[in-house]
Amino acid sequence: MENEESERRIRDENREQNARKKRQSDSGVKMKERNEKRKRREDPLISGCIRFYTKSEDAKTGLLNKMDRVKLCMSEKVSGTTNKDLLDAVFDFYLESHGIDVGNEENDIPFHSYLPCEKESADEDIYLTTYSAIRNMAAGIQQHSQTCSYPMDVKLVKKFGHVGKVTFACRENHTVTADTSSHLPGGTFLANMRMIHGVNCSGLRFSQYKRFCDASGIGLCTENSFENHYDTYCDKTEKLAMDSVQEAINDEIAYGILQSEENGEEFQGINILTDARHGWRRNAAQSDIVALGQSLHRVVGLVTITRADEPVSQRHEMVGVKKLYEHFDASDVSINIHGHDRNASVNKYLATERRSVVNANDTWHATKGISREMKKITTGSKKMMGVTWHPDLTDKAASIKTHAYYAMKNCNGSEKRLREMLDNIVEHYKNVHDNCLPESRCRQDENYEPSKYILVDTDAITILTREIKNLQIYKTPSDYVHCVDTHYVESFNNAVLLYQDKRIKFGDKEYKRRTNLATLDWNENVDREYTSISYYEDARRPRCRSGNKNLKPKTNHFCTSIWKLVLDSIYSS
Known about the structure:
Layout: H1 2-17, H2 29-39, H3 57-74, H4 83-97, H5 131-145, E1 153-160, E2 163-169, E3 175-179, H6 190-202, H7 206-216, H8 223-228, H9 230-263, E4 270-278, E5 286-293, E6 299-306, H10 316-330, E7 335-340, H11 344-352, E8 358-361, H12 363-367, H13 370-375, H14 397-409, H15 415-429, H16 441-444, H17 458-469, H18 472-475, H19 487-496, H20 508-525, E9 530-534, E10 548-551, H21 557-572
């Protein structure tokens, strides 16, 4: 008796230390009364006992505490949930989390839904099915059971693409035949049609689809079945792409008008960014010339130029730009600023044929060669030191490129101001900061010390001044005062690779269909929200500080839109 009281006291102390609330049933009195009351019931409950073992009293108390915490989650107080309800909830949760259905044993037929796969049957055929087909199959078997007492079994399965035609038979040779998929008008299986739709909208080629199906063993739709619906998909995809482009134009205009009203300016038109993408690496048969809105970055114009339009691929961009402006004229869309990657033909066309449009060249293409050009004045032979290069300039090649970006960004659209800021690069390295911007650190920080060699030698100053004046930005400042960056167009060209591999030669019709798919994909997902920004050091870009956005997953609502149009075509024919 003394041992029992000692154990109870130790248990109570452990529970108090582990923040377990002491209950009346811990004394044993209330528990006995409750058990006796249960035995006196007309329908006495059946008791059960689960015994468990732990290595220590603390482990036992910890497990009991977990039980109490689960009970509190199930009801307002621990006594509101019985141990039976607790075990039911925990077991059901575990089974469901492992993909095992938990049914009501009182209402369910004793049937094991969990079917293990033996090694010998791991290579059996796989079929796609639909909900309505499963119901139809069950109805056929049920109808047979009403007239025949013998069970049915699978007698024969014929595969049609990804679908199976199943024949059930019993000992009396009664048969029930059912398909694993419903039929569309014309007899096409719905499951096969959905697979054709998935391949057409994903950018897969038939050879890739065939390899996937052969490896997975899910059957294969013939190439002829794809060709039967090819024209329909081309037409519907082109229609959706045109609607998407028109919607992007309307949104770009609306955004531009709002921005002009906020700035107190008159709306002059939308700003666009253009670039050409060749279908092949050399002498391309087709080229895409795309125009993105500078504000919302969606496709507002896209034309495909083939050899039938222009046999020389190097001229495709100029031909495409002319067609883009024909497209904008037909849509009554005015263009204010046209940014591109400094194509000389486009510069000439805008200067002569489209004088109302402001020409702007890409800043990246203008500055990508600055480091290489500046390297010429940082190293050289001893004989040419002080003539073509100077050792005091060895640490300034990369930073001059940054200064050029900074000047284009802060010139406020003034050619004169842009040149003055470029000229001030030399003064800045001379440690003279009178003309530097007021918000610059060299003006704000009283303890500022230059991180580069201070220029004192007149030869070094002369060489650097001469090289800056030879920059393309300095020679033609009017093309760079708007600081236009076409990196979104380059990103679009990369996104198109999902649908158009440069190593594959597509026909003109297929090439255009894939271009339309890329347009729909881009317009739906560009500038989508992101969850966070990751900052990490990259050895290839040691000066990068902007971070990397972790974007939300892409959506593919355009595939659903194409499917609805295809269904409308099938049911209306």
